[in-house]
Amino acid sequence: MPHTNPVHRNGRRYKRLPARKAWRAVLLGAGVSALGGGAAAAPADLFIYVPNFNDDTVGVFSTNTDGTASPVTTVGGVGSTLLSSTVRGDQAFAYVPSRGSDTLSVVDTATNTVVQTINTGIQPSGLAFTPDGAHAYLALGSGGVEVYDVDAVSGQLTSVTTVSTGAGSGLRNLVLSPDGTRAYAVDQVQDRVVVIDTATNSVLTNVTVGDQPLNITVSPDGAHLYVSNFTDNSVSVIDTAIHSVSAALSLDFGGTLGRGPDGVAVSPDGAYLYVANRTTGNITIIDTATGTAVGIVSNGSQTNGIALSPDGTALYAASQGAGDKLSFYTVDPVTGLLTANGSTATGDAPLSVSMCNDPKSGAPLANGGTFVANTGAALACAGGTAVVDGGTLLINGANQTIATAMSLEAAGGTIDTNGNDTLIDGIVSGTGGLTKTGSGMLTLNAVNTYTGMTTVSAGTLAVGDATHPGASIAGSATVDSGARLIGHGAIGGSVFNQAAGTVAPGGSVGTLSVGGNYTQGGGATLEIEVSPAAGSQLAVNGTATLDGTLDLVYQAGSYSPSSYAIVTAGGGISGRFASISGTAPAGFRQTLSYGASQVTLYLLSVSQAPDGATLYTGLRTAALQNGGEAGRLLLRRLAGEAPRTGDAVALRGGEPVQLAAAGDSDSLRGLLGNAQGKPDVWAWAYGSFTDVDNDGATPGFDTKTGGFLIGRDLPRSDGGFSMGLAAGYSHTSVTEGGVNDATLNTVRVAAYGGWLDGPVTLGGTLGYGYHHVDADRAVPSTGGIAGTDYGIHEASAALQAAAPTQAGNVTLTPRVGVQYIRLWEDNFTEEGAPGFNLSGDGRQVDSLRPFAALSASRVFRTGEVGTVTPSAEIAYSREVLDAAPHGNVSVAGYRYAVAALEAARDRLSVGGGVDVQLDSRLSARASYEAALPVGNVFSQTFQLSLAYRF
């Protein structure tokens, strides 16, 4: 097929095209490259670059949701004779070959400034990227293909090699196969397509096509190439499997001709081919399955280049001549037919339309390359659903929101936030994994269905912000050292926080749910944010294995004592946090409680003693009461109220008084002599019930005591002195508020003695007791029990004087004296309620009670030796020291003063009993005493005693 005669411009040769004005004769055709991407019907904010041949400029447009585009700016300084441009697959950079200047300019699309200009071979015409974006191939009008390395971040090129296409060749454009193994270059001089093996960068074969081929594109599956033949008015279809032309497609439809084909584009699904017919100024739509035209639309004179939107819903066409313009069309998704949608003016002689989804642009995300996202809209370049298979999405702009869906294939994908906070609202699906790298925060706000592992390698990954609590990922997640996993949403699998990473539910106060298990290693951190109203929570469906650090972050505000469930685990909790960091609000302390399936944070006042701490001060009061009761028993015995045997009974009755009053000293001495040298052994059993009422602030308590004393009266001396030894045991149960309880098991020993001088008896006691305490304190906050056991030591002493006086048949015995008791307790530490266990320092308490008592008794003889002696007594005592058993306890490093419930200082008691002399050796006594409720104490004591004389 004959070619038109060449013409010259700036010393270079060009073909003269039919029906073209002489000043446009250098135009050999125009390519269109299309963006990939968006999920919307018409993706917005994608860039269209249109080189203007006569202006030596590139017009920049931005797409709109209605399928139109708006002018943005014009880029100059890119050389002359501009036939095409190529927008990279991430639209971060546009590349403009200058056929008139033999240069290649790199334009940063964020600023639309030229960031690199390199010298090339003669007549650079068309540029295409490998699928991963790592390399670029440049077709030269003088023949040959230059190969460059591409820096993904800077966009700049470095020359690698040149592939020779033979003498006499003149390349116009080229495209790479979807798998990147082949480059196909259109040779418009020799009417062929040169096939290059990209592994060796050598020519593999040549495929002859129609006359004067100008442009080329490839089907999405890579099975076919479509080559526009300008002079033949046809499109050659090349089968890439055998590198042979399988069909030549007509561009006519009905009675309308399609002549001078230039730009070609294939729909995203490969169903339709669109051909820009420069000579007839129209666009032919071809059904690729049948190879026949299904429609043709008029566009305007010299339609050069076309491009489809990533979703195939909009088409953009450049035409030159009487009305240099960029026209817009709506694409019918079923028939592929076009409906005009307006136009906008361009520069002088627009030749091509380039967008980032053209096969020439590369698809780095799907092919293990780096996709630089300058804007949130950029991901639409990768398709309605961006396929990610080993690629990296590098965020290169702050505060982006990405609405495009993604599909993670087997090799997964990486998102590098690069110091920029980014929201992804599109759904992430697929079977691959996701790796988050770079500083800055990535937020996934959709219900994501990808099932691979999520690895937070650096920066922060948020699964759902505060306004998207329904956000989720389906798989498991692992958090690497220094990285953070936060969010208000849900993780379907397990979370492995085993390095020095951090998991922070919410990020602000909120809940992060984990469908599987949660495992935290020794170097990792769980961060919980706390406000006066609520706290963050890690809600685990499976098991939670804890270690490492719990970091508590408190918001400003007015706090009150509160509890926060910070970790819940349906499958149970094992382990504990090794350390806790974070400072509680002023006036509060923080402590943790570990339950079977919940970890609870308690914020407690440092000025208010812990619940139930008053139990321990109550135990001191109970010990004082025990010591006082034992002392009173011994003092009564010394006064003669305890049972004695034989002649000793006469001594405690009225006979000594009567004999002394009658002057019968011989009988008195005989009575005393009979009592000397006849020691008694006695036993005294007693039980008491005591109620100590609360004082409004400090709870009251009840005690129940049962015990015994046994003793032996040693022989009385000639001088009227007597003494004895006693030992005993008691068991006391203490209940405070119905929830706290304790027992005191007490052993005691005592020595007692007296001096009888006529009717006056002087007596005294010295004793020691040891109270073994076993206490259980309820912790209402946790529902648990804190327990401990420790000892309280008791030393006691008492003195009294008694003077029996006979009033007829009744003996009146007034008594006065004083009781002294000192308690000192051992240190103690509770167990059973971690974070709430109390520790107490040993405390000393002193009690001094002067007392006065008056008893009345009468002896009734029942035989030669038998007697029955009823008696009654009233007694009063008063505490004169500060015997309130106040104390201090410590918990979690905080020390608290614990108020004591002091028993009433005044004690008024009444009682009575009956002594029975059974024979000359054995006697018994039964008695009852009640301490009247003149204060906050009411007690009742029952006593039974026996004595036997040897």
Q: How do you describe this structure in short?
A:
This protein is mainly β. Helix content is 5%, strand content 52%.
Describe this structure in words.
- The protein has 950 residues and is mainly β.
- The protein starts with 5 loop residues before the first strand and ends with a strand.
- It has three domains: 6-150 and 169-359, Methylamine Dehydrogenase, Chain H, CATH 2.130.10; 384-605; 615-821 and 849-880 and 903-949, Autotransporter beta-domain (Lipocalin), CATH 2.40.128.130.
- The protein is built from four helices and 78 strands.
- The strands form 15 sheets. A twelve-stranded antiparallel β-barrel has the order 61-62-63-64-65-66-68-71-73-76-77-78. A ten-stranded parallel sheet has the order 32-34-37-40-42-45-48-51-54-57, with no helix packed on it. A nine-stranded parallel sheet has the order 35-38-41-43-46-49-52-55-58, with no helix packed on it.
